[in-house]
Amino acid sequence: MKEPVAEILEHDVSSTVAVAGHPIHAMLVVFPIALVLGTLACDVFYWWSADPFWARVALWAAGSGFWLGLLAALAGLAELLLVRGIRIRVASWSHAVAAMMLLSIAGLNWGWRLHDAEAAILPVGLALSALGSFFVALAGWHGGKLVFDHGIGTMVSTSD
Ligand code: HEM
What we know:
- The chain is mainly α and 160 residues long.
- It has 7 helices and 2 strands.
- Helix content is 74%, strand content 2%.
- A hairpin with a 2-residue loop joins strand 1 (18-19) and strand 2 (22-23).
- The structure holds protoporphyrin IX containing FE (HEM).
């Protein structure tokens, strides 16, 4: 019988949801990462300055971070379900769980602000932004592990 690790290693981990071999998920994740962290920065600026401008920017950052995160997650989910070498790794599922936690918090953070973007910030909005930033770091770090430790989505060029 084959060693379980050897069996895992023999499966292909190339990206299928990709443009010319470049994974679409990796191209999209930069948006939720920047926007979720940006929401926290706007909340802190609002707390510091009481300028309603920052509350409006935070509302847009929270909403676009959530929707673009959902789009990125769809590409990631397709990879997870379609590629056997990705699907059979525990690390892929850990990343997906952290990402779903992040998306739930990001969605809540946006919905919470829709009625009154200014009143929503202190203290609940700020706390949600801090929690979202923690989970974006966790999901992003786990995503990086998939690529750099497991070689998921990478391709070795034979051109030179
Ligand atoms: C259901 C949700 C998700 C699933 C199933 C998923 C799955 C994956 C997979 C399979 C990879 C390996 C690269 C690839 O094949 O494209 C990956 C990489 C990555 N993911 Fe996700 N992902 C999800 C959501 C997210 C979200 C919302 C974020 C935003 C923080 C994120 C951040 C990353 C990062 C930073 C990488 C490394 C990309 C690189 O440096 O090339 N993922 N993810």
